[in-house]
Give the backbone structure.
Amino acid sequence: MIFKEKKVLLRNGQTVILKSPSEDDWERMIDYIKCVSAETPYILRTPEECKDTEESEKAFIKHYAESECECMIAVFDGDKVVGNCNLNVKNRKKVRHRAELGIGLRKSHYRLGIGTMLITELSIIARNAGCTQFELTYVDGNCRAKGLYEKCGFVEVGRMPCGVRFEDGTYADDVFMRKVL
Ligand SMILES: CC(C)(COP(=O)(O)OP(=O)(O)OC[C@H]1O[C@@H](n2cnc3c(N)ncnc32)[C@H](O)[C@@H]1OP(=O)(O)O)[C@@H](O)C(=O)NCCC(=O)NCCS
């Protein structure tokens, strides 16, 4: 599904564009994920695991563009991708009412309300796709993510103890959240 370009004004007076990336944006998208994976320990990919190629990234973008209900929205600040989110819907009939989301921003764009805007847009798309609940996980200790999700109406429903092991050998729980759409 393609999310049509939307210009939004941020609380610092800056303007960014929300839109589904096109295949031509493949390099910008790779640059973005490499940056975010290095800036935060709270996404699962490490910088060494960002091995995307032109071909794989274009295929990833195409998958979302052609999907009937799954969607990817990137945040463009000028020519640069500064954020991204994905909406995935479970495939089997009995679980097709369950949408999942993933979200990330470059550090330079935290705390400007972009996370809230993206979740608001994805909630509308998920509801229109017939989903009745939205699900996500975050790594315990990720206070920004917890704050954003609680503000958007998500509630903790469980935990996987020691779901994540950091490079220094310490562990954190994986926290599961749900929101009724
Ligand atoms: C998590 C993330 C997406 C939040 O996005 P954001 O655009 O900064 O969030 P918003 O500006 O919309 O803030 C939403 C709410 O979260 C809460 N919040 C934000 N930062 C917070 C912090 N440091 N501590 C506690 N709550 C916080 C506030 O309630 C805020 O609402 P307010 O600004 O109206 O007070 C962003 O920090 C990020 O990309 N982090 C790195 C990647 C990541 O962790 N992704 C999530 C993986 S599960």
Observations:
- The chain has a mean pLDDT of 97.
- The two ends are 19 Å apart (CA to CA).
- Residues 40, 42-43, 103-105, 110-116, 138, 142-145, 147-148, 151 surround coenzyme A (CB under 6 Å).
